[in-house]
Amino acid sequence: MHILLVEDDKNLGQGIKTLLEIDGYTVNLVISGTDAVEEFKYGQTPYDIVLLDWMLPELSGIEVCKWLRDIKKGHYTGGIIFLTAKSELDDCVQALEVGADDYITKPFEIRELKARIHAVLRRKNKPYVDSQYEAGGYILDCTQNTLSDGKQTLSFSKTEFKILQILFVNHDKTILRETLFERVWSGNPEISSASLDSYIYNLRKKLKIWQKHLQINSLKNIGYMLELK
């Protein structure tokens, strides 16, 4: 697991880094908000979690979090946990509102931090869904149930879109059939396997106009992958 730790107190940051590395985490420590942004702009590491101090030089933790979550900038969908000396409710709410998944107030025990990391990762391992998602020149609009390439726009039924949404935001990754059943038809055990196959068939027909660049592939009895070329 790769963690980006953003902490301007070098001694504290190095201490957290060392303790997490003892447990097998790979941790990169940077000491400013600008460094954190540049790491995502120019770095090659796919971070699972960002541990983000609130009060940072150059760019605050709040500003960094906003940049990371901006669909046109950082477009980061991994976990963000604030490490902060601020304990007022309004501060904590602000952190969550700009895209943080959790926060932990200083001082804290390393075992509490690791527990929060694990909790965020459990949630993040579910397919990520936002109100709008862009990839490969396509824009998925979750408010209109549409997919567009800027020239043509396709509309989908509610169920079709739920399936497409999960596949598209996790493009080039295999989504298990069980995951689709859980996310699309939660609480309805009567839905048959044939129903899912039928919806996939309909989606493929609609997406045929973009088949050279976008298609749904199947892994027999396992799941589906939306491939962007």
Describe this structure in words.
With 229 residues, this protein is an alpha/beta fold. 39% of the residues lie in helices and 23% in strands. The protein is built from eight helices and twelve strands. The protein has helices spanning 10-22, 33-42, 61-69, 89-97, 110-124, 158-169, 177-184, 193-206, and strands spanning 2-6, 26-30, 49-53, 79-84, 102-105, 132-135, 138-141, 146-148, 153-155, 175-176, 214-219, 223-228. A five-stranded parallel β-sheet has the order 2-1-3-4-5, sandwiched between helices. A four-stranded antiparallel β-sheet has the order 6-7-8-9, with helices on one face. Helix 1 links the parallel strand 1 (2-6) and strand 2 (26-30). The radius of gyration is 20 Å and the shape is elongated. 24% of the residues are buried.
Key features of this structure:
alpha/beta, 5-stranded parallel β-sheet, 4-stranded antiparallel β-sheet, 8 helices
* Form type: elongated
Output the helix-strand order: EHEHEHEHEHEEEEHEHHEE
Distance between the termini: 28 Å
User: Strand tally, please?
Assistant: 12
Mean pLDDT: 87
Cα Rg: 20 Å
Placed side by side, the strands forming the largest sheet appear as 2-1-3-4-5
Q: Helix count?
A: 8
Uncertain segments of ≥5 residues (pLDDT<50)? none
Which strand-content bin applies to the residues?
15-25%
The chain-level structural class is alpha/beta
Tell me about the largest β-sheet. 5 strands, parallel
